[in-house]
Design brief:
The protein is an all-beta fold. The protein is built from one helix and 14 strands, in the order ββββββββββαββββ. Strand 13 and strand 14 form a beta hairpin. The termini are far apart.
Length: about 200
């Protein structure tokens, strides 16, 4: 009898099939000075392959790379390589936004009514160093109420609103103490002669 031996080599020439995630959003405003590290997005990519695959998030947007400032987008490229050396790539967008509100800080103030019994304040007068990671200086929007009169003498609660360049707003409250420090004005007649009538009565 004769025995024949045949060697069959099975080779995988098929690259992994990748499914990218939907467009992602990265809040750069959450980081110090509007800076954050690029997240690792490899876990969001779907992979279909007959063997173990290795995923890489490629430069310049590799995990941990520095992202500075918001606006625009980054293209994330993911490469998958299977055990047989076949590889494929996919990509998706990451939108860079500032979704963090500024830090509104107020201070209490005292204002005096003018001679007409009125006083007006501005947002800057009650602002006490409000700040934002991405916008310097922060935008002072309003203080409400801002006009006072004699009916407001004493403490009054006002609300300061601040905004960053991305449109995020924040508020804080302070006490405005209104004072009336102008003494009343007394108006007198001039010198007057009164003529007495009969029985010393006034005419």
């Amino acid at each position: 009898s004769t025995v024949f031996t045949q060697v069959i080599t099975i080779t995988d020439f098929t690259a992994p099939i990748l499914t990218p995630p939907a467009t992602q959003t990265l809040n750069v405003g959450a980081g110090n000075l509007c800076r954050v590290n690029m997240p690792d997005y490899r876990g969001l990519v779907g992979v279909v392959d007959c063997s173990t695959t290795t995923l890489e998030q490629l430069a310049p947007n590799a995990p941990g790379s520095l992202v500075i400032g918001y606006g625009g987008s980054r293209t994330i490229v993911i490469r998958a390589t299977d055990a047989c050396g076949n590889s494929s790539t996919t990509s998706f967008l990451v939108l860079l936004v500032d979704a963090t509100a500024p830090n509104a800080v107020c201070k209490n103030i005292t204002v005096d009514l003018d001679a007409s019994g009125n006083a007006t304040i501005t947002p800057a007068m009650v602002n006490n160093g409000s700040s934002d990671n991405c916008t310097t200086p922060v935008i002072l929007v309003s203080v409400v109420p801002s006009v006072f009169n004699c009916t407001n003498v004493g403490p009054n609660t006002v609300t300061l609103t601040v905004r960053d360049a991305a449109g995020n707003t924040s508020t804080c409250q302070s006490t405005v103490t209104v004072r009336d420090v102008i003494a009343p004005v007394i108006s007198c007649w001039g010198d007057t002669t009164i003529v007495k009538g009969p029985d010393c009565t006034n005419i």
